[in-house]
TrEMBL record, chain A:
<keyword id="KW-0812">Transmembrane</keyword>
<dbReference type="InterPro" id="IPR052157">
    <property type="entry name" value="BCAA_transport_permease"/>
</dbReference>
<keyword id="KW-0813">Transport</keyword>
<dbReference type="InterPro" id="IPR001851">
    <property type="entry name" value="ABC_transp_permease"/>
</dbReference>
<dbReference type="GO" id="GO:0005886">
    <property type="term" value="C:plasma membrane"/>
</dbReference>
<feature type="transmembrane region" description="Helical">
    <location>
        <begin position="191"/>
        <end position="209"/>
    </location>
</feature>
<dbReference type="GO" id="GO:0006865">
    <property type="term" value="P:amino acid transport"/>
</dbReference>
Automatic annotation (TrEMBL), chain B:
<feature type="transmembrane region" description="Helical">
    <location>
        <begin position="106"/>
        <end position="124"/>
    </location>
</feature>
<dbReference type="GO" id="GO:0015658">
    <property type="term" value="F:branched-chain amino acid transmembrane transporter activity"/>
</dbReference>
<protein>
    <submittedName>
        <fullName>Branched-chain amino acid ABC transporter permease</fullName>
    </submittedName>
</protein>
<feature type="transmembrane region" description="Helical">
    <location>
        <begin position="156"/>
        <end position="175"/>
    </location>
</feature>
<feature type="transmembrane region" description="Helical">
    <location>
        <begin position="54"/>
        <end position="74"/>
    </location>
</feature>
<dbReference type="Pfam" id="PF02653">
    <property type="entry name" value="BPD_transp_2"/>
</dbReference>
<feature type="transmembrane region" description="Helical">
    <location>
        <begin position="25"/>
        <end position="47"/>
    </location>
</feature>
TrEMBL record, chain C:
<dbReference type="GO" id="GO:0006865">
    <property type="term" value="P:amino acid transport"/>
</dbReference>
<dbReference type="InterPro" id="IPR028081">
    <property type="entry name" value="Leu-bd"/>
</dbReference>
<keyword id="KW-0732">Signal</keyword>
<protein>
    <submittedName>
        <fullName>Amino acid ABC transporter substrate-binding protein</fullName>
    </submittedName>
</protein>
<feature type="signal peptide">
    <location>
        <begin position="1"/>
        <end position="28"/>
    </location>
</feature>
<feature type="domain" description="Leucine-binding protein">
    <location>
        <begin position="37"/>
        <end position="365"/>
    </location>
</feature>
<dbReference type="InterPro" id="IPR028082">
    <property type="entry name" value="Peripla_BP_I"/>
</dbReference>
Length: 292, 317, 393
């Protein structure tokens, strides 16, 4: 039983890493622009399909496809930003609908280009097992994704707290008017946060392509998961995202181990609701989300 | 003048449409499906406008309503029409479970409702003895023959859903004009002030949530008896959340009739115009349309049409 | 005198023949079939697979009857939605289709075939295996496969392996849980210890589940009932955890050329249902032509979805031609004509009972062996030796 529990915790931790890399980009954009990008999951998916195309057509290692994927995802991300910045009224709800529409366009575009088949890397190294102390098992792909994702998130965290642009991003998210008065160029800062979100999405996409399977409908699933984790963390909190993601990952894998795999999503949702009811603005969200 | 127009519209809706399309069940079926979306869209807009709450989980109410009504009529032999109303009541009851979510705001509330929808869907899958589990329920009783009119058919279904949508929109309008509506509007402006004056804001919000859930549940129950089949993935499908939101926004969610117009426009344009031209990519057109509407006329279709017809120059925005 | 009479008779006969021939040429008809399928949405993949099979059947029929009859199919995407499937069926019937072929997902086929039944139009499918569909006893509903046939194959293979303990890992959807429960009941009655593990479609990390099987169940065989991405997830987890089992067995969508190509390392030695070996061994000319046409149209190897879509459509076309020859097509004779079907097809013998089910349907089991799929069950269909015990790791 101990062996089972340990493996469940380990699997949950790794799954949490995946969830976090997808969610951090969403949280970052929300932090700076107060906008939920409902096409974020589709950006992740797009990156995964670029990696697939590069591998199946040119035999490129998926990791080597990251620069190309970044270029494509970054461009699309900029288009999303350009469209979003044209919204003048009711930004909160209209941006939701706009990005939702973009998500529909992207999902169907991917379906048209790559059909509905499932894909994953054919490179066997990613699926080889890595065993720690004879009790903890993982695929190489999962370890790479976890370590890489963690490093990337740490870099973003450091950047937010220590660089001038990073501070500008945080200033913008806490008080837009004051930040603008203090000389922060909101447009430039927003673009920057969108590009960083694109970088995170690109990495998450390649990670999913190597460790899991991808299909066109996945984008929507990823968006919802990322959205839930962002809210669970408390909107805009980066380290909260990591903790929330790992919590969801672990409660899911423990549910599989002690109850049934068909109840894992139920457990994740219940955890989400319980956290919200106890602390209405998420784990690290301050008091902002409470009804006035 | 307005009354004559309204009367004419009603005559066309109740008599003209069935006479015109009675022979083509395909078209009538599409209109019924569009009106089903319209019903949810009205309920969603009601919650958003009057309650100030954006919901991402109206599928929860739709599913509960449809399962409630189907199970009551199949297992307990309740006649279909009372069962539909009880289905709506079941959805309103389900909204009671969501009361803790009322103190959440904005996206927090929206996602909490989404989580409920997921939870209800999983419960429907796991509660096999009552709901039939993943296999769902087949051969749900259809609407009966009443006054010589077969309500189980396409035309009957059309008349029923049209009535449901009209009554819902009228109820919405009535609430909006009532003292409650005024209080709710005041609440939007400053909730604290309203509370000080003595308006119980949480009660009002709860009432709006229950009303919205009831309407959505009735629409879900209608759909269950019309399609005559249910399964968890279908009953709680995110389609029942996403399409009505898109329809409401497209038509203009700040108006009463915008969501109805939006649902008819989106669904019928998509199925009748875009699908034959682009058999596989037509949903892409829907996405483009949605984006264009947000960017070009954020208030939605109905306000845009009104602006054009009255030639109003002063910016409403 | 007799000579004259004989000449006269011959002339009359020849004339009659001419008239007859001319008549049959004049009767050359264009038959329009309808097809309602999920080409987008959750079931897009399987829907597209069946769609390809239907296209192949139409292409082959046009070639076989060139100059006499021609066939066309009008396809509408049901977007994996029951309401849109009903609308599609009604639209196709409005266009005047002779019959409908297609449909995927029992929950979508249910209402769609009901709409066809109301209009008295034949609906033939291979996309929904639940007993409920044929249980309705519709006169116009036909299906060439069913849960029983899949369960029989899986059970047969597990018994051939003489497994004592089996862990069934299954998706909590309708078709998959029905099949899993049938396997459990039948094997349980035969003294095999069966443990059941249900998972839902959102599961992407199967390690905790497979670890439970590995440490608690310790079975001889892991039986998987799901779809492609579930199999890939389970097999990857198993490959990492290496449970001490003798075989990995699955059902549909697993022993396919596509899976062998996409996941070569993962599939080795895995069993799944398969009607034909891969590469297809051309024992019958029909299979040969089918594979060639498939290659021509879609530039890839046919998979099981294509085979089923092809067979259902071919049987339908045959029955249409018979009904047309008998002059009953216009007067609703097609269901009766289909019910007279008794044909050897790519998926074995097909007949239809009163409810439209195919009582002869039994699937076969194939095993991935070095990029090929070798048939290993039943014995009489086997074209190679079963590797046992053997796993992908």
């Amino acid at each position: 039983m101990i062996e089972l529990t340990l493996q469940a915790l380990f699997s949950g931790l790794l799954a949490g890493g995946y969830y976090a890399t997808v969610a951090v980009g969403l949280a970052l954009v929300f932090g700076t622009m107060r906008i939920i990008n409902l096409a974020h999951g589709e950006l992740v998916l797009l990156s995964a399909y670029i990696a697939y195309a590069a591998e199946s057509r040119y035999g490129l290692n998926p990791v080597m496809a990251i620069p190309l994927a970044l270029l494509v995802v970054g461009t699309v991300s900029m288009i999303v930003y350009a469209l979003l910045s044209r919204i003048r009224q009711d930004r909160e709800i209209n941006s939701l609908i706009l990005t939702f529409g973009i998500g529909i366009i992207m999902t169907n575009g991917i379906l048209t280009i790559w059909a509905a088949d499932i894909h994953s890397t054919t490179n066997p190294w990613f699926q080889d097992s890595l065993v720690i102390a004879d009790t903890l098992f993982a695929m190489n792909a999962e370890i790479v994704a976890f370590v890489g994702g963690l490093a990337l998130m740490a870099a973003v965290y450091w950047w937010l707290n220590h660089s001038w642009q990073g501070r500008a991003v945080r200033a913008l998210s806490s008080n837009r008017n004051a930040a603008t008065l203090m000389g922060v160029n909101p447009r430039q800062t927003e673009i920057l946060s969108f590009l960083i979100a694109a970088l995170l999405a690109t990495f998450a996409g390649v990670a999913i392509y190597t460790g899991k399977t991808v299909f066109p409908a996945l984008g929507h699933v990823l968006t919802v998961k990322a959205f839930i984790i962002t809210v669970l963390a408390g909107m805009g909190s980066i380290h909260g995202v990591l903790i929330g993601a790992v919590m969801i990952g672990i409660i899911e894998s423990l549910t599989v181990t002690y109850l049934s795999a068909s109840l894992q999503e139920l457990a994740g949702m219940l955890l989400f609701l319980v956290v919200l009811f106890v602390s209405p603005s998420g784990l690290f969200g301050g008091r902002r989300a409470l009804a006035r | 003048m307005r009354h004559i127009l309204l009367l004419a519209a009603l005559v066309v809706a109740y008599a003209g449409v069935p006479l015109l399309f009675g022979g083509t069940p395909y078209i009538l079926g599409l209109i019924v499906a569009a009106l089903t979306i319209a019903g949810i869209a009205v309920a969603w807009a009601l919650l958003g406008n009057l309650g100030g709450m954006v919901s991402f989980g109206h599928a929860a109410f739709f599913g509960v309503g449809s399962y409630g009504s189907a199970v009551l009529s199949m297992k307990l032999g309740v006649p279909v029409f009372p069962a539909v109303l009880l289905g709506g009541l079941a959805a309103a009851l389900a909204s009671v479970a969501m009361l803790p979510a009322l103190r959440l705001r904005g996206p927090y509330f929206a996602l909490a409702i989404l989580a409920y929808a997921h939870i209800f869907q999983i419960l429907a899958t796991e509660m096999t003895p009552i709901t039939g589990g993943a296999g769902g329920l087949l051969s749900i009783p259809r609407f009966p023959v009443l006054f010589g009119l077969d309500l189980g058919g396409k035309t009957g279904g059309y008349v029923i859903i049209l009535t449901i949508v009209l009554l819902s929109a009228l109820a919405y309008d009535a609430v909006r004009r009532s003292a409650w509506g005024l209080a709710l509007k005041a609440m939007h402006d400053t909730e604290v002030a309203t509370r000080v004056v003595g308006v119980p804001s949480t009660h009002l919000k709860a009432a709006m949530l229950a009303l919205s859930a009831f309407i959505t549940g009735v629409v879900g129950a209608f759909n269950a008896h019309f399609i005559s089949f249910l399964e968890p993935d279908y009953a709680f499908s995110s389609t029942w959340t996403v399409l009505p939101i898109a329809a409401a926004i497209f038509g203009g969610y700040r108006t009463v009739w915008g969501p109805v117009l939006g649902a008819l426009a989106i669904y019928l344009l998509d199925q009748l115009l875009f699908k034959p031209i682009l058999p596989h990519g037509h949903q892409m057109v829907l996405g483009v349309l949605l984006c264009a509407m947000i960017l070009l006329s954020p208030g939605g279709l109905l306000p845009a049409l009104r602006r054009r017809s009255t030639g109003e120059r002063h910016a409403h925005a | 005198m007799t000579r004259t009479l004989a000449t006269l008779a011959a002339t009359v006969a020849a004339a009659a023949l001419m008239v007859g021939l001319a008549g049959s040429v004049a009767q050359a008809k264009d038959f329009l079939l309808g097809s309602e399928l999920p080409l987008t949405g959750n079931l897009a993949r399987v829907g597209q697979g069946m769609h390809e099979g239907i296209a192949v059947a139409i292409d082959m029929a046009n070639k076989a009857h060139a100059g006499t009859h021609s066939f066309k199919v009008s396809t509408i995407d049901d977007e994996t939605s029951p309401a849109k499937a009903v609308a599609a069926v009604e639209k196709l019937i409005g266009e005047g289709v002779v019959a409908l072929t297609g449909g995927y997902g029992s929950n979508i086929i249910g209402p769609a075939s009901e709409a066809a039944q109301k209009a008295g139009v034949v609906y033939i499918t291979s996309g929904g295996v639940t007993p409920d569909l044929t249980g309705r006893g519709y006169k116009t509903f036909f299906r060439i496969n069913n849960t029983d046939g899949y369960a029989l194959a899986m059970i047969g293979l597990v018994q051939q392996m003489a497994a004592k303990k089996v862990s069934v890992v299954y998706l909590n959807k309708e078709a998959t849980s029905n099949l899993a429960k049938q396997v459990k009941e039948t094997l349980g009655a035969k003294g095999v210890a069966v443990t059941m593990h249900e998972f839902d479609g959102s599961t992407s990390d199967f390690k905790p589940l497979v670890n439970k099987v590995k440490l608690q169940d310790r079975p001889d065989v892991i039986a998987m009932v799901g779809y492609e991405n579930d199999y890939v997830g389970i097999l990857r987890a198993a490959k990492v955890l290496k449970p001490d089992v003798k075989a990995m067995v699955g059902v549909w969508s697993l022993a396919t050329a596509q899976m062998a190509k996409e996941f070569p390392d993962l599939m080795e030695n895995v069993h799944g249902t398969s009607m034909l070996p891969f590469p297809v061994e051309f024992t019958q000319p029909e299979a040969l032509e089918f594979a060639a046409t498939y290659k021509k149209l879609f530039n890839k190897e046919p998979d099981y979805l294509g085979q089923f879509g092809y067979v259902q459509t071919r049987l339908l076309i045959d029955a249409i031609l018979r009904a047309d020859a008998a002059g009953t097509l216009a007067s609703g004779g097609l269901p009766d004509e289909l019910r007279k079907t008794d044909a050897q097809t790519l998926i074995g013998r097909v007949t239809f009972d009163a409810k439209g089910d195919n009582p002869h349907f039994t699937h076969r089991m194939g095993q991935h062996q070095g990029g090929k799929v070798v048939l290993v069950w039943p014995k009489e269909a086997a074209n190679g030796a079963m590797r046992f015990p053997a796993t992908p790791w």
